[in-house]
Every structure is written in structure tokens, then in C-alpha cells.
Hints:
By secondary structure, the protein is mainly beta. It has a domain at 8-134: Immunoglobulin-like, CATH 2.60.40. The chain is 1% helix and 44% strand. It is built from 1 helix and 39 strands. The strands form 10 sheets. Strands 3-10-9-6-7 form a 5-stranded mixed β-sheet, with no helix packed on it. Strands 11, 12, 13, 14 and 39 form a 5-stranded antiparallel β-sheet that branches. Strands 34, 35, 36, 37 and 38 form a 5-stranded antiparallel β-sheet that branches. Strand 16 (203-211) and strand 17 form a beta hairpin. The longest helix has 6 residues, at 175-180. Mean pLDDT is 87; it is low at 1-41.
Amino acid sequence: MKIKNILYLATTIFGLLFAMSCKKDLSTLDVNPIAGVTVDKEGTTILSVTQFDKLIINPKIDFNGVDESRFSYQWRVNLAYNDTVSKVLSNTKNLNAEISMVPTGANQFYALAFIATDKENGLKHITYWPLSVLSSIGEGLVIASTSDGLNTDLGHIMSPLVTPNYTNERVKLKIYSGANNKTIPGLVKQMRFTGALRLVPRGTVNTLFAITDNSMTRINTVDFSLVGQNDALFYTPKTTYNFQYITGKSQADLFIEGGKLSLAYHAISDKIGIPFDYQATIPGIVALNRTLNTDGVAFNFYEETKGQFMYVPALATITSLDRNLYAHPNQPAAVFNSGNLPNKINLAAGAGMNEDFVHVLKDKTTANVNLYVFDKGVYTGGAPTAPAPKANFDLSAAPGIAQATNFVVLDNQRVIYYTSGNKIYAILYGGATPIFEERYTVAAGESITTLQIYQQSDYPWGSAFLPGNNNQLVMSTYSGTAGTGKVYILPMINLGVGNINQAAIKTFTGFDRVTAITANK
């Protein structure tokens, strides 16, 4: 027997979902009689939802005396706006589902289907809506974390502390797998956001690079969709990769892989060029002067196999600049001989206050740890002058230094942070003798996994920065089980001594074990 005039169905659909809302309930319209099992769209032809928000539709149904158990329901959506492959969002009458597909462009829509099936005769009544998905991720922190110790997913934090002109707090988990239906193989150990104004074709290119020991993934931060991995990112692919470090200077991105240094400028090309032919092994710990306009050299590092410091005057896409590699001169009378300093290994490096180059090295034999400080050197377009040694501090008495991890070199005060055990320590090296002081202890059961200074992605060459830029630490901890990862924002006070404003610390929870954090636009 045919079912006719037995079902009354209506649904409420508000137009556009606001980009920053957490959910939208579409269930307030009056019930209207409808012949058969159909949906009156009430003039609403397109649905919209922000990516990673919940789409909620609660259709009100008058069964007119017919048992509701006679019908089953399903909500489906296609995985790509131009594909017929679909996935089930819900097998219930009401829809309450997170929409994680990548945002759609202009005149692009997913197909959202509501299917009511009569279980007595198998008849399916299907109603479609075009579904527009909007980008919901703005400036903030990208969080890499692992639930299995083998693969990595990405999350995101938006907060007034890290997001301009934003008053709410928003934490999103598993955004990479949500957009791509897979995780990143391996453990992400570092990420870098880079944005460039593309010259040809015109437009802005926003990219997140994420490296593991043997892979690099490029991600479009508009929707966190995969752009490419490994071979697809290089002009000259390799059989195997050993990714060590990624950094940048303005719109130029620097990649250290397999002891070689490569450069890319994404305003011109999506590909990474061939490595510089340097007769040296570039370590994964280097000091880069990221200041846009400077009369010093750009790049300084300790070459472990040669036992000496080396430098590059300029690292930019302007080929007229001196991008050659130079060794520091042998200088026995200096405060330390940067041209002959054998038997060390790199622990940390960075650009410190007044563009000084700062390096922390450990002696392979004695295990003593020393801090070596250089000036910025000289390069104004002519013959370069190597960074000159300024100070040599013995750090061996610093608490927990033998087990230290997560070194952080500040560029606005002569302070270096490091973690050891469950504590953050500060090294104050502005005087004749370094001072070591504890700055923070995490709660019992938590272990520190990452620590860094918060810097917005366009620092230092941008023009407008948040108050917290360069003035707050970002730390992550883990308690040993899934979902116990935390991200802390620790504001600093008392410039010059690196104190932490403990009363103002902000915590974000729900992550797995965090392996890397970076700022994005």
C-alpha cells in the first residue's frame, strides 16, 4: 500500500551561519502539511556552516497517527564539492554533526542530503541542499599532537592572547584529519607558517610547513588541506630525506635537510630550490638574524665536524648579495677562538638582544656546557666581517642543565630559558657572571613537551603586533594518556629577568601529546 498524505514535515533553516558561531539550530519553523515525505525549504536554497562547527537541523514531523518507528533516517554529504563520493553524518532524524570538509570557494557547494526511508516498502524520500562551508580558522596557534606516537594531527587555538580583534576563545582538535581524512605520517617536530603576496598569478599564498625526521608536509592554512609532501615540494627530489630545521627571513623560507641549506621564495614559486653548494654540514641548530634591515651578517652556526663557527653574510633571493659560506678566522687572543673550537655539539642557538648571535654548546668529553656570544658581524654589501666573540659563560652549574631540553633564546632581553624535568629555568647573562633561576614548575604528573617564545608569524618585519608578541611563553605538557595534553600561555613580566606572571597564566586542554606549536595568520 502506498503511503500518501500521512506525513507532515517541516524544517527551520536560518540563512548564513556566522563564521565564529559554535553551532546553529535550524528547528523553529511551524509544522506545515506536505504530501509524501518531502522537505519544504521555505525559500532557503543554500545552507552555510563554518568549517569544524556543528550543523544542527531538527526537523519537526507530524506523523498523523502513523508509528514513527516505521521510518529510518540518514544525513549524508559528499566529501568534495565536485565529487559524488559521500559520507554519513548521522543516522538519526535530527542532525547534529561537525562539518570538517575544506571550505568551498565562490559558487562551489557540497550536497547535503536528508533521506527518510520507509522500512515497510524500502521507498526513499531524498531532499538535497547545497551546502557552503566557510573558513573558521583565523590567526592563532597551530598545535601538532600525536595520539599513538606514530602519526600527527593538528589542532588550533584562537584567543585574544594570540588572535587580533578577537574576544572569544576557540579550541579546535583534529583539523588536519578532518579536512584530509588522514593524519600526517610520523611525528611533527617543527612547523612554520609563511605568507607571501604572489606576483604571478596574483594573490596571497598562506602555507604551513610541518617537518618530521623524514618528511615535510605543506598545508593550505585557509582550510588545512594537504598541498603536497616531500618530492612534490622540491625542484630536485631525493630518494630519502632527513629534515632538520625550517626558518625564514621575511618572505624567504630556509630549509635545512640532510646537512644542506635550501632557500625558497613563495611569492615567485611553490618549489624549493637546490641546496647551496656549501662545503660544510649545516646543523639543525643555527642562529639567523631575521631583522629585515640590518648591517650585520645573516646566518651563524657551529660546524660540529670541523670544530669551528661559520657564517653566511646574506640569505635572500637577491642574487647580487653575498650568499657564500665563510669560516670564522682563527683568533687565539679573543675571548674564545671561534675559528678553532673542537669537540663540541650544538644544544641551542639564536639571535639575541641587539642582534647578537648566541650559541649553547656541550663538550663531548667533559660534558661541560658553555654559552658563546658574538656581535652581529658586519655586512653592508662589500667584504663581510665575521661576528666577533663577545663573551664565554660556563653554564655547567645551571640546575638540571645536563638533562636540559627546549632552549629558548630571547631577542629583547639577555635571557635564555630551558626546561629540565618539570621545571622552567632562566639563564640571565647580562652581567659578568650568569645567574640561574627557576621560573615555573608544572603540576605533578605533567611533563613538559615543548617551550617557545610567542612570536607572531610576521615578526619581526611586520607592522602591528599584539601586546603578547615576544612577551609570553607558550608551553605544552602531557600527563601520559590521550586527551591530557595542555597548552599554556605564560605572560612575562620584569623585562631583563624573565619572570612569569603566574596569576595571568592561561591553559587550553584536550590535546594529545603535543610535539610542536607555531603561530599562523
